[in-house]
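TA notes, week 10

Several of you asked for a full example with nothing omitted. So below is the full record: structure tokens for the whole chain, then the designed sequence directly under it. When grading your own attempts, check the secondary structure regions first.
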């Protein structure tokens, strides 16, 4: 699965009484779908997922899935403390049609979270997951920082396709990129090198199937897995054209076009994909080798974040730097320090529904609201 670009980890809207406001969630997702973001992350840290019941998580996943445009990659935050519960929520996300599982590091028993524990956890989940796995390292919340060496070792697993690195350490991101350059994988993309998802194939009228062969398109065939991945092996056994040798990993992309349903696709080499989580360091992170970002600040300002990525993608380093400077202070303060209440107030300012956070998170004071309004005065959608 291609994970290049900007992904907002959307918030979960609540009524004043604390119940989930599903209509506002639907409205927010529909609006994000009209922006140039690459996809949407549901049940990330910004989504207050740790404060939701299991049924609420399932309902939020379904509502967001139903409202999302088919050309947006959908990433489900399915990580909980045990491997078994993580797999259960991941399986549910897969049944709903999500594309990738974002799985944070277990941390409650952090004194026992040695490399052997994390290797066993992620390998067990990745072995059995119906979705490709994106590691989620978020030390500001977990107080556990996964070592780069451990990430590099896990990157060898064919179903671990990348990491959201939210430590804010650009040099660590660079180290992971450098340590995984040897990993060669390909992902199915459109003719214009955008991500292909099962929902795109469904929307095209194929219902996720190759009409010539009548076989279902396996999610793993779209996920950027290695050539020796069990899912690609399954695709080969099914005679699926996406598993053909035309997607040789020795080339950045393949010019050969394959039609799946009504969608013309080709293969693009993606390797192990590093996404970062600090909007105030987006441009230097991209320069260090990141391919995109999952940014809390993209919840109130998705277009402003995308403009940095677009300028970098076009090779305009000076414009990317200027766009980065424009949001740096606001991203640090609103996204990094004021957290979910600050982000939700920013969303209210920029035409999304933010609303209240869940207790024990408190609403901003009038003084802090005024500060957010000042910081976002020139960062409007």
């Amino acid at each position: 699965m291609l994970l290049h670009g900007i992904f907002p980890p959307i918030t979960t809207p609540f009524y004043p009484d604390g119940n989930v406001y599903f209509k506002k969630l639907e409205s927010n997702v529909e609006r994000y779908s009209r922006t140039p973001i690459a996809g949407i992350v549901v049940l990330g840290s910004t989504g207050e997922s740790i404060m939701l019941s299991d049924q609420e998580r399932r309902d939020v996943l379904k509502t967001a899935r139903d409202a999302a445009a088919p050309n947006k990659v959908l990433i489900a935050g399915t990580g909980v403390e045990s491997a078994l519960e993580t797999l259960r929520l991941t399986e549910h996300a897969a049944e709903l049609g999500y594309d990738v599982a974002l799985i944070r590091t277990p941390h409650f028993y952090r004194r026992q979270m040695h490399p052997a524990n994390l290797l066993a956890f992620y390998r067990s989940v990745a072995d059995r997951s119906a979705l490709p796995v994106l590691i989620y390292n978020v030390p500001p919340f977990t107080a556990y920082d996964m070592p780069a060496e451990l990430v590099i070792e896990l990157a060898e697993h064919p179903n671990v396709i990348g990491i959201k690195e939210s430590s804010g350490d650009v040099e660590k991101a660079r180290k992971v990129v450098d340590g995984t350059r040897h990993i060669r994988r390909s992902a199915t993309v459109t003719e214009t090198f955008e991500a292909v998802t099962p929902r795109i194939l469904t929307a095209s009228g194929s219902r996720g199937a190759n009409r010539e062969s009548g076989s279902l398109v396996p999610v793993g065939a779209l996920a950027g897995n290695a050539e020796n991945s069990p899912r690609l092996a399954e695709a080969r056994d099914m005679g699926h054209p996406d598993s053909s040798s035309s997607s040789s990993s020795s080339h950045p992309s393949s010019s050969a076009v394959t039609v799946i349903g009504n969608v013309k696709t080709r293969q693009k080499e993606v390797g192990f994909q590093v996404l970062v989580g600090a909007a105030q360091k987006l441009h230097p992170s991209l320069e260090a080798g990141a391919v995109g970002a999952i940014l809390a600040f993209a919840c109130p300002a998705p277009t402003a974040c995308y403009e940095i990525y677009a300028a970098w993608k076009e090779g305009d380093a000076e414009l990317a730097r200027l766009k980065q400077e424009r949001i740096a202070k606001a991203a640090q303060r609103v996204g990094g320090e004021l957290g979910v209440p600050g982000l939700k107030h920013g969303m209210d300012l920029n035409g999304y529904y933010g609303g209240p956070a869940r207790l024990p998170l408190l609403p901003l004071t009038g003084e802090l609201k005024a500060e957010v309004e000042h910081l976002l005065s020139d960062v409007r959608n």
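Residues 101 and 336 are 24 Å apart (CA to CA). Use that as a sanity check on your answer.
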